[in-house]
Specification:
The protein is α/β, with parallel strands linked by helices. It folds into 2 domains: 238 residues, 3-Layer(aba) Sandwich (Rossmann fold), CATH 3.40.50.300; 59 residues, Alpha-Beta Plaits (2-Layer Sandwich), CATH 3.30.70.1150. The protein has a 6-stranded mixed β-sheet, sandwiched between helices. A hairpin with a 2-residue loop joins strand 4 and strand 5. Helix 1 crosses helix 2 and helix 6 packs antiparallel against helix 7. The longest helix has 16 residues. The protein is globular, with a radius of gyration of 23 Å. Bound molecules: adenosine-5'-triphosphate (ATP) and magnesium ion. InterPro entries: AAA+_ATPase, ABC_transporter-like_ATP-bd, ABC_transporter-like_CS, ABC_transporter_ATP-binding, P-loop_NTPase. This is ABC transporter domain-containing protein.
């Protein structure tokens, strides 16, 4: 057995041990792929540490699915490479399938199957230990999906749930998810976030694409922004939040409340005698302490600066500028 085969074996059969020895689990280096002259992705380099999640955000056609398909070894990169646990995403794609739970951006099911028959098929392909069964049942319950229904008769959201269950039930240490919450109603999007947080407790390494900043903010340590096939930036979510500024509009009940507010140490912009805009950076403890001490007639939270920044970033791509 070659050294390389040995590595693969120890990943598949002893992944816990391996995880500790390999800090950068997912490593992408100068990854480039174009589709017959059409730009796909260009010169992507990033890493995802073991047990953390990276969310990829970007407008339609930015290159998210292309990146994910390269990670899954569906295409050979033109240049550069991607690897997971030191396994090359293209060369070692068969081995990587064993350790990866994958949700495609566009689901193509065998429509004549029932949900259960489809899950049984996936289960069979992976040796079906008892734990898969249990996890499958838990996921079906959490997402409120009836597996007896034929896939042909399922709605878009129901099919998406089935795809999520198939990706998560294997309990794979790596999850690669292409727009996992698309088609889910708001309640189910919340449930999905809870499922991902549950996976994170089990030290899963997650790479997912999304159009919802809030979803990435809640589940990922880092967010990457891709546009026109290029990675613009990778940001640490905790750092972003610490630096985040938020505004609140407030109207207090009387002059004494206004005076308390002025003395609170909060950054204030007076609008008139009793109305103010409050600006808070990072920690909001002082704001809430102050609010507890004064009489408030009206209080309104301004939009989050972060979310606005991301919207701006989407818009500038529409205008085609690079700011
Ligand atoms: N099979 C293909 N053949 C030719 N061009 C393709 C193919 N797949 C993607 N592209 C092109 O590559 C670029 C990136 O597409 P990709 O599907 O990766 O975007 P995306 O970020 O996933 O977008 P969306 O948010 O719409 O899913 C686009 O310009 C697209 O037209
Ligand atoms: Mg896509």
């Amino acid at each position: 057995m070659t050294h390389h085969e040995l590595t693969v074996k120890s990943i598949v059969y002893g992944r816990k041990r391996f995880l500790k020895r390999w800090p950068a689990l997912l490593e992408v280096s100068e990854l480039t792929k174009s589709y017959h002259e059409v730009r796909g992705v260009k010169n992507l380099s990033f890493q995802v540490e073991s047990g953390t999640a990276l969310g990829l955000l970007g407008p339609n056609g930015a290159g998210k699915t292309t990146t994910i398909r390269l990670l899954m070894g569906f295409m050979k990169p033109d240049l550069g490479s991607a690897s997971i646990w030191g396994l090359d995403c293209w060369r070692d794609r068969a081995e990587l399938k064993e350790i990866t739970g994958y949700l495609p951006g566009e689901l193509h099911f065998m429509e004549q199957f029932t949900g259960q028959e489809f899950l049984d098929l996936i289960e069979g392909m992976h040796g079906a230990p008892q734990t898969i069964r249990k996890k499958q049942r838990d996921l079906l319950r959490a997402l409120e999906l009836d597996p007896k229904q034929r896939i042909r008769k399922m709605s878009k959201g129901m099919k998406q749930k089935l795809g999520i269950i198939a990706a998560l039930m294997l309990d794979a240490p790596v999850l690669i998810l292409d727009e996992p919450s698309s088609g889910l109603d708001p309640l189910m999007q919340k449930t999905f976030i809870e499922l991902i947080l549950e996976e994170k407790k089990r030290e899963k390494t997650i790479f997912m694409s999304s159009h919802h900043f809030a979803e990435i903010e809640r589940t990922c340590e880092r967010v990457g922004m891709i546009r026109d096939g290029e990675l613009l930036a990778i940001q640490d979510i905790t750092l972003l939040k610490q630096k985040e500024r938020q505004t609140f509009d407030i109207e207090v009940s009387g002059e004494e409340d206004a005076e308390l507010l002025r003395q609170s140490g909060l950054t204030l912009y007076p609008l008139d005698q009793l109305k103010f805009t409050i600006q808070v950076t990072g920690e909001q403890e002082l704001l809430w302490k102050t609010l507890a001490q004064i009489r408030v007639r009206r209080f309104q939270q301004g939009s989050l600066e972060l979310e606005e920044a991301f919207m701006h970033y989407y818009h500038s791509s529409l205008r085609g500028d690079n700011t």
